[in-house]
Description:
The chain folds into 2 domains: 6-59, no CATH class; 85-325, Hypothetical protein af1432 (Orthogonal Bundle). 47% of the residues lie in helices and 5% in strands. The relative contact order is 0.10. The chain has 331 residues and is mostly helical. A 4-stranded antiparallel β-sheet has the order 1-4-2-3, with no helix packed on it.
Amino acid sequence: MTNPKLLQIDKDEARLGMFVHGFGKQWLRSPFAVTQFKLSSAAELKALRESTVTTLVIDLSKGIGPTGSAAGLPRPSETPMPANVEGAFAKPTGMVRSIFTKAASSLSIDRQQVEAVVDVVDQLMYTRPASVLNLTRLRTKDEISFQHSVAVCALVGLFARHLKLDGNLVRILSVGGLLHDIGKIRIPTEILTKTDKLTADEMTVMQTHPREGYAMLARTEGLPEIVGKMCLHHHEKLDGTGYPDGLKDGEIGAAARIVAICDVFDALTSIRPYKKGFTPQAAAEMMATWSGHFDRVLLKQFFDCMGLNWPGESALHITEEMAGIADLNDF
């Protein structure tokens, strides 16, 4: 480490008043949504110590060192944290279920409830962002749509912050991530939960969900247009083979490109009725092979955000099992 102001320490040496500069390759295991911040609360310190991170880098020019004086700093308290991942995300998942259920009957969105969910997800992401990935192990047939919406909301917000976007835009994009699949409430349950490959007719029905969602969002007063476009275009591909409009390259907005990456990443790493969940790195290797699907610059930045390696040429292959996934219902 060439910068004399930076010091790598064990997590057990962390104390309130230290400025965290980063976690290196352990970023994905960090319990925080940002990588540079001052440890200023007992809850943050407790979350760090209970995480699987082993080391961190601190900036001595912006905070105290491991042997600095602790006078005047608050002592860590036993601030209760959610006992498990499922418990942590039960509240936002239940709130999304309520939003979707009401929308199914009224064909409009409760904007206040949406904002409340984003608030809860933001709060969780600042203390337990890695929990979003762990959600993939908890999916049940009935909860998939709701938990997927929460996870994509969190991933989009996390990625947007990594891109250093304006705070207001981060929130708008998070709302778009939460609502990107709202149109699926108009799709018959037997199609949504089918474990086999969809027929051509069933796929035609499935591919109506972006337009259905867009129409619903357009009726919701006060939602920015970008939220609707994220819903409408999250299945478009840069090579023009996506749906519903077959847009190409520059015709697809940056927000839709962002949510498309987060949507597929969560779908690949999730347990579904018809597949096991892939590891994050396996999902990255698969996504990197899909030429013409994603914005490659954004995809590389997303992998960096998630602490994943950009696959080398030797790793850019799809196994027979992976190839089958691309033919199923998510993409």
